[in-house]
Amino acid sequence: MAKEKKDGGFVETIKTVFWALLIAGIFRTLFFQPFWIPTGSMKDTLLIGDFLFVNKMAYGYSQYSCPFAMCPIPGRILGSEPETGDVVVFRHPTLGSDYVKRLIGKPGDQIQVQDGVLFINGEEATQVPAGTYEEIYRAQGRFGTFPLCSNAPVGQGGTCVKERFIETLPNGVEHSILNVADGRLDNTNVFTVPEGHYFFMGDNRDNSTDSRVSQRANGVGFVPEELLLGRVDRVIFSAAGKRLLFFWTWRGDRFFEKIE
After folding, report:
1. 1 in a domain, yes or no?
2. Is residue 66 part of a domain?
3. In a domain? residue 150
4. What are the 10-residue block averages of pLDDT along the chain, 260 residues in total?
5. How many domains in the chain?
6. Which DSSP helix (H) or strand (E) runs through 91?
7. Which range of residues forms the domain containing residue 154?
8. Quick one: the chain helix, strand, coil %, rounded to 5?
9. Catalytic center residues
């Protein structure tokens, strides 16, 4: 009798775990996917250690909406058109990892950067100086990366400074961007975004692997629409240390921070 009761309890535990995993999988696939920011390419909009949920309802669903790209969905269904300026999580076209960047170009758009200034279809995205962005020069996040500084060289523990601007896209979206120094990606050829693809850039313009560099050169290139996973709307909470569970490193001013 005791053995039957024990066996029954084990089966019930298995059932509970199964249903819990199934519900979590459905929630993650259809509604919100957790995402942890591992790099500084979107500073100061997103910081290393920000934890957020990706709104997967924003652009509909594709094969890549499911874990391990297992959704039997051809193309994209129930989708709506993303807007220029959205902060988007997408699957890298060749590496298979998830990236987060700002959507700059939609199908048919012409994108160019001249002297660090963005142009979309020949229209300038104006930049207004907004002071500086300062952070401590030290290893950041689980990868232990050091920030780039416009006042380099900076000793460990010193103040790392970047120029900060408010950029206004042609559709009126305003957001912060950072500048470290003049670099090779501050002047580009004209990119014409193919049908069914999108063009992305990081807000930390001199420290971002994005669509300005082709996939053959280890960049992102143009991103097919089926690889869009969802839109980032808010930071849930943020940790400045190597692990989210290190509560003493949590950034109190970033709880439920709205993303612009």
Report:
1. no
2. yes
3. yes
4. 52 53 48 84 96 90 79 80 96 93 98 97 98 95 92 95 98 97 93 97 96 94 95 91 78 89
5. 1
6. strand 87-91
7. 31-258
8. 20, 35, 45
9. 41, 101
